[in-house]
Design brief:
Length: 552
């Protein structure tokens, strides 16, 4: 997807509002030009002391243009920003939806801070593209054409000079500036993303960096990224200053040409003295509209870079896709199988090869193996975050690729090792699973996860804040709360990925016993690297010895 196609598809629903904004902006700028022209004529004419009735039409026109300019400018801002913000909201939702479709396998090549930058600042660039680039250029083109015709009617030479000045400011300067600013403005979006990613890495990894004395190097790299961004901003500012100087020069040249050509015409009798002021002063109002075009060109370069980054995400291939005609899944209990499965997160790097696994109704199966053996890849296959490159994964004999992924994930629940807790209350974290759940249902889920007694001791109970990433809770409490959320959802099959990670043997055994007791008669796949789990499950599957299994 190109950035231009992305902009066109994003802006098309708000085309009516954008057209209204262009018309209102053209009216406002035209009123400014009309105000300058009529005022110039009125002052020149009044200096000759004609009867006041001869000035009444001009006086009324000055009032109308003065009032209309403000009203139309407000209408332009209102219509333009309303349309742009609507586009912004829809595009942000579209990007977020696409990220959800790609996660997690399709986002392996992106850093989290960079994705946050694309979802926030890069989407905001669409607002700049619409309100600071397209609208100013459309308004300047229409008003400029009308003004050239007006001035050229009285003095062809002044009209040609005005046309040349407008082309210089509106076309030549932006083109030259765009070429010069390509490295500066075109790099600002990725530089901001690089700076954001480095900052997040520094903040999250600061304890480890301090412990190993590596903080100074990271800070130096962060300072280097900041310096690159600052230099890019300085180049953009310098170019803006040069553009402003050229605009002022072009305005002055048009005034001088208009004055010289108008004076010759007045002396020859081809032009009245009152209209000389119109020819000389009208370009001032016209260039007030055109003066924003060089800055608009700079916004264009930066916004285009941001739109390209958004188009990159939106056009990224999805690791899985919904079937055109999904099949119905019979009511449970359910059986999950991997049949001679190969899998890879990136092409050419196979993680699993010829893997067979069966999870029968009500079974408790442990999947063991060292780190990097592909245990979490099995979990991703079972919830269809990833599709196999060979073989197939089935639910009750139906290939998962024929089942709607949303339906599958209502049946099979996955609790990753780092299950995320939001910086909100216990109740709000639980209601992510069921927004309509009552407090009694929340307490029932907490009781199943062996957390209700602890929650009862808290002063705020269910309204207790868990902190960022659940930092106010212990490791075991975080895992139990994540499990309570899964139990509240009502999954029939649960996959527990490293549920006892970072716990000592005694606490790990106690937590695992509680977790397995809490899941009741659901089918459970426990993914772990611990080898002392055999007594707690029905079957142990060792990825290092597949396809053999160790029955218990």
């Amino acid at each position: 997807m190109s950035w231009l196609r992305l902009l066109r598809t994003a802006a098309s629903p708000a085309a009516g509002g954008l057209v209204l904004a262009v018309l209102a902006g053209t009216g406002a700028a035209g009123a400014a030009v009309g105000l300058m022209a009529v005022s110039a004529w009125l002052i020149s004419r009044a200096a000759l002391h004609p009867p006041v009735l001869h000035l009444m039409v001009a006086i009324v026109a000055v009032r109308a243009f003065g009032l209309g300019r403000g009203v139309l400018r407000y209408a332009e801002r209102l219509a333009g920003h309303d349309a742009a913000l609507r586009v912004l909201g829809r595009l942000r939702a579209r990007v977020f939806t696409r990220l959800a479709e790609l996660a997690p396998a399709g986002l392996a090549g992106y850093r989290h801070a960079d994705l946050a930058q694309r979802l926030a600042a890069d989407v905001d660039a669409v607002l700049d593209m619409l309100t600071r680039v397209l609208l100013p250029y459309a308004v300047a083109a229409l008003v400029g054409l009308g003004s050239v015709l007006l001035v050229g009617t009285y003095s062809p030479a002044a009209g040609l000079a005005l046309a040349g000045g407008l082309l210089l400011v509106g076309a030549v300067v932006p083109v030259l500036q765009s070429r010069a600013a390509r490295l500066a403005d075109g790099r600002r979006a990725p530089l901001r993303a690089e700076l954001a990613a480095g900052t997040v890495d520094l903040v999250h990894g600061l304890p480890d960096l301090l412990a190993y004395g590596a903080d100074s190097g990271r800070i130096a790299r962060l300072a280097e990224s900041d310096a690159k961004l600052r230099r890019a901003e300085q180049r953009s500012s310098a170019l803006a200053g040069v553009s402003a100087a050229i605009t002022a020069l072009a305005t002055g040249m048009c005034l001088l040409v208009g004055l010289a050509a108008g004076a010759v015409a007045v002396r020859s009798g081809a032009l009245s003295g009152e209209l000389l002021a119109v020819i000389v002063l009208t370009p001032l109002a016209v260039f007030e509209t055109a003066a924003v075009l060089p800055a608009a060109a700079q916004h264009f370069a930066a916004a285009r870079a941001s739109l390209r980054r958004l188009a990159d995400v939106l056009s990224a291939p999805a690791p899985v896709s919904a079937p055109q005609a999904p099949v119905n899944v019979p009511d449970g209990p359910h059986t999950l199988r991997l049949e001679a499965v190969d899998a890879a997160w990136t092409p050419g790097r196979t993680v699993l090869h010829d893997v067979d696994l069966e999870l029968r109704p009500g079974a408790r199966v442990a999947l063991v193996g060292p780190s990097g053996s592909g245990k979490s890849t099995v979990a991703a296959l079972l919830v269809r975050f990833l599709d196999p490159t060979a073989g197939r994964v089935t639910l009750d004999g139906i290939d998962l690729r024929r089942i709607d992924p949303e339906l599958l994930r209502q049946i099979v629940g996955y609790l990753p090792e780092d299950a995320y807790l939001f910086d909100t209350t216990i109740a709000a974290n639980l209601r992510i699973a069921r927004p309509d759940a009552t407090d009694d249902e929340l307490r029932a889920a907490l009781a199943e996860a062996r957390l209700l007694d602890w929650v009862g001791t808290l002063p705020d109970g269910l309204e207790t804040l868990v902190g960022e990433h659940g930092r106010e809770l212990s490791g075991g409490q975080r895992r139990r709360l994540a499990l309570a959320r899964a139990l509240l959802r009502g999954f029939q099959v649960l996959i527990l990925d490293e549920p006892t990670e970072h716990l000592d043997d005694e606490n790990a055994a106690a937590l695992l016993d509680d977790l397995l007791a809490a899941v009741g008669d659901r089918s459970v796949l426990v993914i772990t690297h611990r080898t002392d789990i055999a007594a707690r499950v029905d079957e142990v599957v060792d990825l290092n010895r597949l396809p053999a299994t160790v029955p218990v």
